[in-house]
Write a structure and sequence with these properties.
Structural class: alpha/beta
Helix content: 40-55%
Strand order of the largest sheet: 3-2-1-4-5-6-9
Radius of gyration: 20 Å
Number of helices: 12
Order of helices and strands: EHEHEHEHEHEHEEHEEHEHHEEHH
Length: about 300
């Protein structure tokens, strides 16, 4: 029996890929949007040609709109993401999903979430809000009826080097620190597969990474080779990195502090880390395991998207 799937946030790269994947696997797909007229990259052409998707108004920060969207479309599986601005860590929204008939939720979380969720502190500004939502999902849906997809460091994070390539100098903190550079399309494929087929095993926290670990320096070289540029690397200390993140790259101060703190953790151990978080190398194959297709390498992604690095 084909599921009716509702995708909140289909205009994002992950949500769009999740919608396309679920549809390709036979699910009826509903696109829940704040602006139902908005163009969706990768979806709009298909929508017009085959009328493959139904659009409905909803806002994840307004639980009544979520309830109405699910109730009127009779969706049973839902994809959601962290809605910033929610005063209760999306608890009312999660209750609305449940009461309207949702049986399975796929939540786009973060690889930084691990261990005892209740022990994660507010100063850990990436894992904390995601963990709060996961705990609310556990309370409302129970252990078996939601899946937290926890992707690693997005390939698109390297767009922070764009201005550096233009200037010919890239400032970097911890150039030897490794990242996985997972591609949003691959995350969406896993999400869409789970939405259409249901969970494939007992795992309810799926850690997803790119196919290989690369140092930050290696990612710059790959981008440089694609662009035909060879920028100078200027290494920063912790104080300089904080200033760079806030003043040059526009990060909020709490996020900059978190980034510096996590990067410094890497210097203390030789284990495999992404931003100070230990990873299991077996998880590098999880995209293929849960979607049936190999994950995209960073080099492949850069070749496809190198125009993004040129203003």
């Amino acid at each position: 029996m084909a599921h009716t799937v509702i995708i909140f946030g289909p205009t994002g790269a992950v949500g769009s890929a999740a919608a396309r994947t679920a549809s390709a696997l036979g699910a009826k797909v509903i696109l829940a949007m704040r602006d139902t007229e908005k163009s969706i990259p990768g979806l709009s052409a298909l929508d017009k040609k085959a009328n493959a998707f139904t659009r409905v108004y909803a806002d994840l920060t307004k639980s009544d709109t979520v309830h109405n969207a699910v109730l009127t479309t009779q969706a049973t599986h839902a994809f959601i993401y962290l809605a910033f601005g929610s005063a209760d860590n999306m608890k009312a929204t999660i209750h609305a999903l449940k009461s309207a008939g949702i049986e399975l939720v796929v939540f786009l979380s973060s690889f930084t979430v691990r261990g005892d969720l209740a022990a994660i502190q507010p100063r850990d500004v990436i894992p904390y809000p995601h963990a709060q939502v996961e705990m609310n999902l556990l309370e409302v849906f129970g252990e078996k009826d939601f899946v937290a997809v926890r992707p690693g460091a997005f390939a698109s994070n390297t767009l922070q080097y764009q201005k550096g390539f233009e200037r010919g100098v890239i400032k970097m903190f911890g150039p030897d620190m490794t990242v996985d550079c997972i591609v949003p399309e691959d995350i969406g494929r896993v999400c869409g597969t789970v939405l259409a087929k249901g969970p494939q095993d007992d795992q309810r926290a799926l850690y997803l990474y790119g196919p290989e670990l690369l140092s930050q320096l290696e990612t710059v070289k790959i981008i440089g080779d694609a662009l035909g540029r060879d920028p100078k690397i200027e290494e920063c200390d912790a104080q300089g990195a904080y200033k760079m993140f806030v003043e040059e790259r526009g990060l909020p101060a709490p996020l900059a502090e978190y980034m510096v703190r996590q990067t410094r953790k890497v210097f203390a151990t030789g284990e495999d880390h992404i931003f100070g978080h230990t990873i299991d190398r077996e998880h590098l194959g999880n995209v293929e395991k849960y979607s049936g297709r190999k994950s995209t390498t960073f080099k492949e992604w850069v070749e496809q998207e190198k125009g993004l690095f040129v203003s």
